[in-house]
Amino acid sequence: MTVKSSLRSLVYQTEKLTQRLRFAAQTTPQGGWPILLGISFPKSGTHLLDQILLGLSDVAPFSKRVHSFYAEYEGESGVKRAPEQALRWLDSLTPGDIASAHLFARPEAVSRVCSARFVPYFIFRDPRDVVVSHVFYVTDMEERHVHHAYYQSLPDFDARLKVSILGRPDADVEFPNIAERFAPYLGWIDRPEVLTLHFEDLIHERAATLARILDHLLVRAPLSSPRELALSAMEESINPGKSPTFRSGKTGEWKKHFTDEHKRIFKEVAGDLLVKLGYEKDGNW
């Protein structure tokens, strides 16, 4: 561990101790304080969910910053991490942590997350908006991304969008099509221990969705603070300007960018994914 990481760990643990002292009079839930875990599909509101969960630190002894972030792929190299790394990361978390992850629903991970240690959430977004957001992110916002140079080399947005839909099957690093990218996350959707969230609901039905997020926690850890105070803290913690990858926060943007060709290839590779996720009733869109 470097000096910088050691110092960061010390600051974090000091903050957690301060939180425990601040809320010492609050009754500890049976089984202790859980870990709040925000699982997200990439480009689906990761930082928005982080901010909302961090708002709970104003009403309970949760950490005031995200403990750490885990992703199944290394950002700059694009190398896929071994499943054991995800398990070690989950095991490193402690009560009161707030953590964030692009985490596959492998059986071993599911068994850990769907336990009394965690209060887990899974946020996702219309995959059509995901692929549009992915183009902007890789091309314009993250120069260190493994696919940045390739996207820059493509002639126009249409060509880049096709790659975000179809993936790069011939690339040296794994980048499958949009349906195959989502498939490892589908296991979170049917788990009652995991609250599934549509990114769109946090934009268009925020009050009701924040209430669902709070209620999911209260089942496991009743709070002493009034309900309205907790909801207000969650709402006030939302700050898009603090998200390093925030671009527009809009929904349905895919309609501006999808040509008939994009629709055709998306339907070919994605099959009934949009129906499974609740975005369409059938393939006639």
Q: Tell me, what is the CATH class?
A: Alpha Beta
Strand order of the largest sheet: 2-3-1-4-5
| SS class | alpha/beta
Task: Provide mean pLDDT, rounded.
Answer: 93
Give the number of DSSP strands: 5
Q: How many angstroms does the end-to-end distance come to?
A: 52 Å
**CATH H-level homologous superfamily name:** P-loop containing nucleotide triphosphate hydrolases
User: Major sheet: size, sense and barrel closure?
Assistant: 5 strands, parallel
Quickly count the helices: 14
What order do the helices and strands follow? HEHEHEHEHHHHEHHHHHH
Which key phrases capture this entry?
5 strands; single chain; Rossmann fold; alpha/beta
Write the layout of secondary structure elements.
Blueprint: H1 3-22, E1 35-40, H2 46-55, E2 69-71, H3 83-92, E3 98-102, H4 107-113, E4 118-124, H5 127-141, H6 148-153, H7 157-166, H8 178-182, E5 195-198, H9 199-204, H10 206-220, H11 227-236, H12 254-257, H13 260-270, H14 273-276
Parallel strand pairs: 1-3, 1-4, 2-3, 4-5
Task: Please provide a written account of the structure.
With 285 residues, the protein is an alpha/beta fold. The protein has a single domain (8-276), classed as Rossmann fold (3-Layer(aba) Sandwich). It is 47% helix and 9% strand. It has helices spanning 3-22, 46-55, 83-92, 107-113, 127-141, 148-153, 157-166, 178-182, 199-204, 206-220, 227-236, 254-257, 260-270, 273-276, and strands at residues 35-40, 69-71, 98-102, 118-124, 195-198. A five-stranded parallel beta sheet has the order 2-3-1-4-5. α3 (83-92) links the parallel β2 and β3 (98-102). α10 (206-220) packs across α11. The longest helix is centred in the N-terminal third of the chain and has 20 residues, at 3-22.
